[in-house]
Amino acid sequence: MLLGYRLNGLTYCLCLMALCLTTIIGCSKDEVACELAEAPLKRLTSHQYNQSVSDLFPELNLPLYGFPLETSVGGFSNNSSLNIATSSLVDAYHYAALDIASQAIAGVSSIDSCEEDRVCLLSWLKELNSEAWRRPLTDEEATGLEEMFLEWSEAAGNDGATQIIIQYILESPDFLYMPEIGNSDDGFRRLNSYEIATRMSYFLLNSIPDDELIQAAAQDMLQFPEVRSEQAWRLLSDEPARVSYREFVRQWLELDDIGSGSVDFEYFFPDMDEEDVDDHLYNELMPAMRYEPEVMVDQIVFEERGALEELYTADRTWITRNAAELHDHVISEEATNGVSWISSSAVQGREIEFEETFYPIDLNTNERMGILTLPGLMHARSHPSFPSPTLRGVFILNRVLCLEVSPPPDSIANTIPTDTEEPRTNRERYTNNLYEESCYSCHDSIDGIGFTFENYDSLGLFQSLDNGYDVDATGELIGTDVDGHISNAIDLTSRLSRSRTAHDCMVTQTFRYAHGRVETEDDTTTISTLQEQFWDEGGDILSLLVNIVEDENFVISKEVE
Amino acid sequence: MNRRQFLASLGIGASSLFLPSLLRGAKGDALAYTDQPPQRLLIFYTRHGVWGEPWVMDPEGLGSNLAWSSDLSLLAEDDFSRVLSPLYRFRDRMSVVEGLSLLSAEADITGQRHELGQVHSLTGSPVQLMGGVPLGSSASVDQVIADQIARADRFRSLELAVGLPENSVIYRGGLQVAPYESNPSTLFRRIFGAENSVEEAVLAAQGSVLDRVAERYERLGLSLGQADREKLQIHQQLVRELELRVEGMSSLACNHSIDEPTGGEGYNETFEAMASMIATALSCDITRVISLNMGEIPVDELVDGYSGSLHFDFAHNAFNDELSAEVMAQYGKRHSEQLASLLDLLDSIPEAGGSVLDNTLAVWVSELGDPAHGYDRYNAVMVGGNRMKHGKYHHFPSTLPYDAWSWDGGVASVGPPHQKLLTTICRAMGLNVDSFGQEGVIGSDGVEISLKGWLENLT
User: How far does A254 lie from chain B, in Å, by closest CA?
Assistant: First the structure.
């Protein structure tokens, strides 16, 4: 039982909710609810925008619209503290809305079947408006829509007016932002059911609420934790939530870094033609490396209902035929158990499509185990010809353990100076670092983790010899509940899989993503309760998502002045 | 570019759009100004400072201890430094400033040196942390100038990039990062429009729909708390700006046609596409303020036979490794060549008896003093415009008492604060200011060092 006011069953009726709300608002400083944090106004991310318009216009084959890069805070781009609009963003919204509206006129069958009839078109527009704004229109808004229609239809005809109103709907703050007006009193704000539906939907689907969620909102049922839980489980059992969860994984594990660094062709492919290397590397290996972790999460979490422990200790992975060499494997021509994977993203205005089949293969668990040792993750934190134990260590500390290490003061450690002419191994390159005394406090914990990945070269391939010498992948964990000497990456990930620190971190990262903000002191109780639940439930990731939604603090926040 | 594209440009009203000279393919002046041509600003921003040795010049052998100015116009091409030599042909219209410092960044302890430099260099103000992300606490110099010189009915400013620099350095206001556009095609469509089949009556209603949208932002804001309302107000203001621009762009007339970039995605190809759009945008008065944020040049496009990270593998070692020093010298020279080619483009467009460059001040600055994160010996090149006293190389010695970091241990004194450069730029653009950004830093002797004032020899 987290909070004193949590309801225990659907037998409670709405009148009790009112009583409950009074209790919250009237709480004293000793009560948990008083520790609510502020929730600044959220805006759709570019991913959410594209997903939303695609769900609003399922008949249209819309392109992915490009928007200016979002600034990530705490690793997530949906952060509401840094989402102030800019001129190029507003232009991009306008351009996208104009394009969508224009395509709708040509391709939406409901518009076509209205045959330019005003009443029919208006009725459809009101439905669209309500769906896009994720709530019923007020009478005033409905009347306003009719007036706008009349005004614009004079010059542009009924279809023209329809097109312009679609633009209006999509450029309005009610669509682009997630306004939370709710019911406020005495410093607290309790979301109304529609606003709760929006929060749930953008957290779990990265899109507008579906019909059933909106119906639950219409009956004001989403105020009940049990109903939110039930709805969340329903959503999580469907494909859209699975696809949506990739967006969390992408940002949590910084997957966009995979393939962004350079590879030393001469070092890795000395005998191959540069063009062939380029082709193989960037069309086959890199995309497979980029999506392999996503496939693993999808299969383990959603298909097998695996927990965090399974993710960190998986004894199998999924890889494409052309990239199976990454695991020293060959996919048999007869293999039919592949997972078909389609992904598209808009990067800097360029749409990137990827479609491939990933086949399950067993990992040699003496060499590689779990998601954290996958080639892509190893390669992303490497230099062109040698890996970086520092970057690898920092990644585990920041993303997996939430033991945030700040970047070094670059006035101190900005080079990799060595005291020998030519280091024999990569580890030697880094152990010979002429760190100043002050560096050791951080580097002991960073390198203690980073060195355990020395069995993976800068492309992410397994190696037992480095430059002809035996690899030394020993290290040490510091600052966690599973501290101590580590023999290699397998040992490290095994420990992390049983670590309370790592489980707690998973909750913190998911919380940041769910709420679109970095936690504050006011969130301490909420997060530690969720962490307790996650640990008690064996690290079940889907339950964590549901617990976050079920939590009372998902629907109440501190009033922003 | 065809008329259809123009029409579609952010929904320009069809009825009023006409590009007579463009459609006739006429040649001649960019725009026939009845009055003076507009003042324009172009910021050319590069990474990793400058590698001093192949950059600096001392044609008269005056040494480094005193402040001096040397006439560039008397120099032979061979007298120019290796990095600056591509700019030789602009020597009469160019000012070189050598030896300032990012003193306020040195005094700021809120981030890493790259990030601090990226914020301080153009805002002149301290970093403000937001969710752990270091951001500018006030508007950058180009945006302050845009407040003064931008046309309300055109693009207020354009923030562009080549490659993918890690951060934007432009701030519309405190914490308001202006993201850059690095894809030439997206930029083209934003400025010049793209092919589509939108009906002209619908295009004609674009101003009106934006008006309704802006009203909706205002209305919704009334129901929200102050911070959220301010967010919507900013958005609303931008919708209003777009509304004005949609109307204003319809009176655009320009002699310079430009095709949608179709080139590859390489660094040089992107730069060339951006450069030609910059020239068109400035000469056609589509905007008066542009910043071009030059991301790292890939090492393999810089030096044959090498790869790796320019930042980690070369920049940091510029002072203690010959190969790195050579790579960084070529890096500086490449930027110099790129700037020169951009200036050539502006200079090739006639305007009011001169060229567009005569009415455009181009400023080349960086985030750092040197590639090893030093803030002292911070340099700048300024070319063009008509309000700066050009033709000189200005050397400033490091005499302000401040214990600053440097690659080989530290320095006890630094050059004049770069805020004086920012103030100078403002004054050259017609702003009557005597300071820009932060106003003082406590020196190592406990006495406040003023960051106010400007470089008097330049304006």
Answer: 15
Same domain, B160 and B135: yes
Q: Quick check: A68 and B179 CB within 8 A?
A: yes
Q: B263 and B165 in one domain?
A: yes
Chain B CB within 8 Å of residue A262 CB: yes
Rounded to whole angstroms, the Cα distance separating B252 from B5 reads 13
| Model confidence pLDDT, tens digit, residues B280-336 | 999 999 999 999 999 999 888 888 877 777 887 888 888 888 889 999 999 999 999
Residue-wise pLDDT for A349-394, tens only, equals 566 788 999 999 999 999 999 999 999 999 999 988 889 999 999 9
pLDDT surpassing 90 at residue A107: yes
Q: Is B312 on the interface with A (CB under 8 A)?
A: yes
* Percentage of chain B lying above the pLDDT 70 cut: 91
Q: Which of residues 93-152 of A touch B (CB under 8 A)?
A: 94-95, 98-99, 101-102, 106, 148, 151-152
Which residue has better confidence, B89 or B111? B89
Mean pLDDT of A175-185: 91
Out of B236, B251, B266, a domain closes at B251
Q: Would you state the pLDDT for residue B195?
A: 67
The CATH number assigned to the domain holding B182 equals 3.40.720
CA distance B323 to B320: 9
Q: Supply φ then ψ for residue B378, to 5 degrees.
A: -95, 125
Contact B183 A350 (CB under 8 A): yes
* pLDDT of A191 above 90: yes
**Torsion angles phi and psi, residue A188, rounded to 5:** -115, 155
Which residues of chain A from 396 to 415 reach within 8 Å of chain B, CB to CB?
407, 409-411, 414-415
pLDDT of A26 above 80: no
Q: Are residues B231 and B87 in the same domain?
A: no
Q: Is residue B419 part of a domain?
A: no
Q: Is there a single domain that holds both residue B322 and residue B410? A: yes
Give A-chain residues touching B11 at CB under 8 angstroms.
94, 98
Read off the pTM. 0.88
B438 vs B273: CA distance, rounded Å: 36
What confidence score (pLDDT) does residue B20 get?
A: 28
B356 and B408 together in one domain:
yes
Residue labelled with tokens 């959410």? A48
Is residue A187 less than 8 Å (CB to CB) from chain B?
no
Least CB-CB distance to A414: which of B176, B213, B372? B372
Report H helices in B284-412: 299-302, 322-347
For residue B6, being part of any structural domain is answered with no
Q: Is residue B71 part of a domain?
A: yes
Q: Does residue B304 lie in a domain region?
A: yes
What percentage of chain B carries pLDDT values higher than 90? Answer: 71
B75 and B123 share a domain?
yes
pLDDT score, position B66: 95
E strand or H helix that includes residue B304: none
B164 and B226 housed in the same domain: no
Task: Give kind and range of the element (H or E) at residue B294.
Answer: strand B289-294
* CA–CA separation, A378 and A283 (whole Å): 19
Is the Cβ–Cβ distance between B375 and B414 less than 8 Å? yes
List chain A residues with CB under 8 Å of B221: 173
Query: What would the two tokens of residue A53 be?
Result: 């318009």
Q: Domain residues for B170? A: 38-193+256-414
Q: What is the pLDDT of residue B310?
A: 86
Cβ atoms of B81 and B55 within 8 Å: the answer is yes
- Total domains in chain B come to 2
Rounded to a whole number, what is the distance in Å from the CA of B274 to chain A's nearest CA?
Answer: 15
Domain boundary at B234, B251, B268, which? B251
Question: Do B158 and B224 belong together in one domain?
Answer: no
**Confidence (pLDDT) at B196:** 67
What is the reported pLDDT for B35?
64
| Rounded CA separation A256/A259 (Å) | 8
- Rounded distance, CA A281 to CA A241, Å? 31
